[in-house]
């Protein structure tokens, strides 16, 4: 539901999605306080404006930004891939791992570096990973990024 605003436009989709979600959840009879939590999370999930304002927002940020993988690429013509397609296509697996004992939350990626350099990943995703760190901090967790077995953040 968090990306529902993309039906309007990708630009500012977090905010338009929050407004759309309000209407849907209100019509469903959800408690106002729960609606407020959910729509503020939706309105704060895009890295251009995001802030982990509550626990749901922090969890949504971590879940959304770890959702990078080959199957997200709709374009089937590798020759016309843009940098986002190349990064997503190069990710063979992505896991979000919570280790309760150490309070670590880890995005563990396996990237095909024949397709793509790890630096390209950072060019696209550094802002998102820093946002993940803020979200983890909100949840009193320690964020780690592991790519091909190497801890990078
Ligand atoms: Fe989004």
Can you describe what's shown?
By secondary structure, the protein is an alpha+beta fold. The protein has a domain at 69-151. Helix content is 43%, strand content 16%. The protein is built from 5 helices and 4 strands. It has helices at residues 13-27, 32-42, 55-65, 83-90, 118-138, and strands spanning 91-99, 104-111, 142-147, 150-151. It has a 4-stranded mixed beta sheet. Helix 2 runs parallel beside helix 3 and helix 3 runs antiparallel to helix 5 (118-138). The longest helix has 21 residues, at 118-138. It is globular and about 50 Å long. Bound molecules: fe (ii) ion (FE2). Residues 3, 13, 45-46 line the site of fe (ii) ion (FE2).
Helix and strand run: HHHHEEHEE
Assembly form of the protein: single chain
Q: Could you tell me the number of beta strands?
A: 4
The value of Rg in angstroms is: 17 Å
Ligands (ions, cofactors included): fe (ii) ion
Strand order of the largest sheet: 1-2-3-4
Mean pLDDT: 92
User: Main beta sheet, described?
Assistant: 4 strands, mixed
Shape: globular
Determine the fraction of residues in helical runs and give it as a percent range: 40-55%
Number of helices, counting only DSSP H or I runs of 4 residues or more:
5
**Residue runs with pLDDT of under 50 for 5 or more positions:** none
Strand content: 15-25%
Cα separation of the termini = 29 Å
Question: Structural class of the secondary elements?
Answer: alpha+beta
């Amino acid at each position: 539901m968090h990306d529902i605003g993309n039906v309007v436009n990708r630009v500012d989709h977090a905010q338009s999605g929050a407004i759309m979600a309000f209407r849907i959840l209100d019509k469903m009879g959800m408690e106002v306080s729960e609606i407020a939590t959910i729509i503020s999370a939706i309105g704060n999930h895009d890295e251009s404006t995001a802030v982990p304002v509550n626990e749901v927002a922090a969890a949504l940020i971590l879940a959304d930004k770890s959702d990078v993988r080959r199957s997200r690429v709709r374009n089937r013509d590798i020759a016309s891939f843009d940098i986002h397609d190349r990064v997503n296509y190069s990710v063979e697996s992505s896991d979000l791992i919570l280790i309760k004992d150490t309070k670590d939350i880890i995005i563990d990626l396996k990237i095909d570096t024949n397709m793509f350099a790890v630096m390209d990943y950072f060019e696209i995703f550094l802002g998102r990973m820093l946002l993940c760190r803020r979200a983890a901090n909100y949840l009193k967790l320690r964020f780690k990024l592991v790519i091909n077995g190497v801890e990078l953040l």
